[in-house]
């Protein structure tokens, strides 16, 4: 997942593991992809049955409507047998049945569900817990018993339950989402109409903020992987700091804010009142299509509920990922077609814009850069530790090899901005031949629904085809047969590794052949001196640390035709002179070219990083390229 407490810190161990994952910021492709062959990826229809999103029937519903989640309620008394004793078999039975159908579960534990037997554990009732009887009309649920939520013994037992629940089930691949439940009628965090308005003759059974806080913070502490939702934010409760989303139980009926034509007490208005309207960007929004409207909301155009809140407007304000809708099992004709479209509009929707990879020699590293965007209305909320992305190589339709990346899909924001990921395998071990490059998101539930991209090359087996490449032969010479002569015309077919405007050095290019690595800096009024810095092992924990560049760790430097190495991982200007025999340099006011023998810097493979400093005659800094930020990477061919 984790938009929750555990955030992934990805370290690149370069060639030691043969894998170097890198991610770039939203909306900007990484500079290093420009050194590779770009492959535009055709768009396609949104995948019909993506996991962790869409409409959700109750568990066991017989329906052919495409879905990946199943919903159920479960009483606490079915699992808690004492203050610190639990029998999870009832929950296991439900989870195993749902996962056996290839689906993930969404569910809620309750103590009080109007119209059915109490969910309060028997040991609490036997211990004297006050159980307040109510008997409401059928449209308000019917009869039941509301426990005294303020009772200290009850509160302790509830915290013990949450701790045990989280310890055992956090990150369970059978679970998609959990709604907090427990408090109030149906576990919906209210006891209406038994509230502060006693003019109706009903007592005030409101639950205190102390109890709300205890439940929220205990769930937040013991669930750090599985996404959580709660019915609504409460005043005086740490809504903003809790890694918990929300659940709209009347979607399409009481969703829109009052400013958008909804009620003053609607779901989104409550979020706005407590500054939670943007919680969807980090935590899941779930809910239920308002049950009385489920049969009609998709029957005609525009799709709208009985209060004239349109489907499109509700999506725009609430950004839900999943919605209970039991009536999908009864839809036919136009209503069915509309509902299938509506279900796909929920949550994330990934689309690959471009892939970057090359033909390989038998000894080349395999590199894949990829631009992914989320054209949906909400993020994907799980990271690579639960939902990893794999790179695959197929030949003749059969998977030959695959490698698991550390690409975090939850870092791709909704709104169609591009996120670029990279992965390098230094020794792919592929025999000569023609292959297809592909990627796949791995569902942690082994028989679960495949996650598909909205691209033409998406296959039903989950693999997205990115196109073909060849392996075999020797590495071709760099484009244009580079000559180190101060003339950049032979670099015209090579894309820049880094660019900048408003300074003397404006473009840095890198290429290579089997024996040499070539550098070209272009600009205007370049100074008499220049320095090329090289992080040859792609490891920032070795080499010279240049404070303006991240991922620097520069092991080597070319200065006035001489090669230097740096003996330590610090910013001390203390270099070892390696001489001039392995370096060729040519420079003038607009071009600085250099060539270095690969053997002189340890015969690197995979990715290196490079940067340039323009220095005047007094060895004072004129500019850097890149001016700041990440030292760009170049994958050797």
TrEMBL record:
Pfam families: DUF4832. Keywords: Signal. This is DUF4832 domain-containing protein. SUPFAM superfamilies: CBD9-like. Residues 244-446 form the DUF4832 domain. Gene3D superfamilies: Glycosidases. InterPro entries: DUF4832 (IPR032267). Residues 1-24 form the signal peptide.
């Amino acid at each position: 997942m984790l938009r929750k407490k555990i955030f992934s810190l990805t370290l690149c161990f370069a060639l030691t593991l043969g894998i170097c994952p890198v991610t770039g910021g939203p909306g900007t492709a990484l500079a290093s992809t420009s050194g590779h062959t770009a492959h535009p990826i055709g768009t396609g229809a949104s995948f019909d049955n993506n996991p962790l999103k869409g409409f959700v029937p109750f568990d066991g519903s017989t329906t052919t409507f495409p879905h990946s989640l199943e919903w159920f309620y479960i009483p606490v008394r079915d699992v808690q047998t004492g203050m610190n004793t639990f029998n999870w078999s009832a929950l296991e039975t439900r989870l195993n049945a749902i996962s056996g159908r290839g689906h993930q579960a969404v569910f809620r534990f309750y103590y009080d569900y109007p119209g059915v037997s109490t969910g309060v554990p028997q040991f609490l009732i036997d211990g004297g817990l006050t159980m307040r009887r109510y008997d409401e009309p059928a449209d308000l649920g019917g009869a039941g018993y509301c426990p005294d939520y303020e009772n200290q013994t009850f509160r302790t037992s509830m915290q013990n339950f949450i701790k045990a629940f989280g310890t055992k089930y956090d990150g369970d691949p059978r679970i998609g989402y959990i709604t907090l439940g427990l408090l109030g009628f149906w576990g919906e965090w209210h006891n209406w109409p038994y509230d502060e308005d006693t003019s109706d003759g009903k007592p005030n059974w409101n639950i205190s903020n102390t109890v709300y806080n205890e439940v929220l913070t205990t769930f937040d502490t013991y669930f750090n992987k599985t996404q959580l939702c709660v019915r609504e934010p409460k005043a005086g409760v740490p809504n903003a700091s809790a890694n918990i989303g929300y659940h709209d139980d009347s979607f399409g009926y009481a969703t829109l804010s009052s400013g958008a034509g909804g009620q003053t007490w609607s779901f989104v208005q409550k979020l706005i009142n407590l500054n939670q309207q943007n919680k969807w960007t980090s935590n899941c929004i779930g809910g239920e299509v308002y049950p009385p409207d489920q049969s009609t909301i998709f029957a005609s155009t525009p799709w709208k509920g009985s209060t004239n809140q349109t489907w499109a407007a509700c999506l725009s304000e609430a950004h839900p990922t999943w919605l209970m809708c039991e009536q999908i099992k009864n839809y036919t004709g136009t209503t069915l077609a509309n509902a299938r479209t509506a279900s796909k509009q929920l949550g994330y929707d990934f689309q690959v814009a471009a892939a970057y990879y090359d033909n390989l020699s038998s000894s080349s590293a395999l590199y894949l850069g990829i631009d992914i965007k989320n054209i949906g209305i909400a993020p994907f909320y799980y990271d690579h530790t639960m939902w990893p992305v794999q790179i695959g190589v197929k030949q003749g339709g059969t998977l030959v090899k695959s490698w698991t990346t550390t690409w975090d899909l939850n870092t791709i924001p909704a709104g169609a901005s591009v996120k670029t990921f990279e992965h390098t395998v230094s020794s792919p071990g592929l025999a000569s031949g023609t292959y297809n490059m592909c990627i796949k998101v791995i569902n942690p539930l082994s028989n679960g629904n495949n996650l598909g991209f909205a691209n033409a090359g998406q296959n039903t087996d989950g693999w997205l085809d990115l196109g073909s490449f060849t392996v075999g032969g020797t590495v071709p010479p760099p484009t244009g047969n580079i000559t180190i002569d101060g003339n950049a015309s032979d670099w015209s077919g090579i894309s820049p590794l880094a660019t900048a405007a408003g300074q003397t050095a404006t473009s840095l290019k890198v290429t290579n052949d089997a024996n040499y690595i070539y550098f070209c800096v272009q600009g205007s009024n370049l100074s008499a001196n220049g320095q090329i810095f090289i992080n040859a092992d792609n490891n920032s924990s070795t080499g010279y640390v240049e404070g303006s560049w991240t991922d620097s760790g520069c092991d080597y430097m070319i200065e006035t035709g001489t090669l230097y190495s740096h003996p330590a991982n610090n910013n001390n200007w203390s270099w070892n002179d390696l001489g001039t025999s392995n370096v060729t340099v040519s420079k003038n006011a607009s071009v600085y070219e250099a060539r270095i023998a690969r053997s002189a810097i340890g015969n690197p493979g995979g990715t290196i990083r490079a940067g340039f400093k323009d220095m005047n005659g007094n060895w004072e800094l004129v500019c850097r390229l890149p001016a700041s930020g990440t030292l760009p990477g170049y994958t050797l061919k």
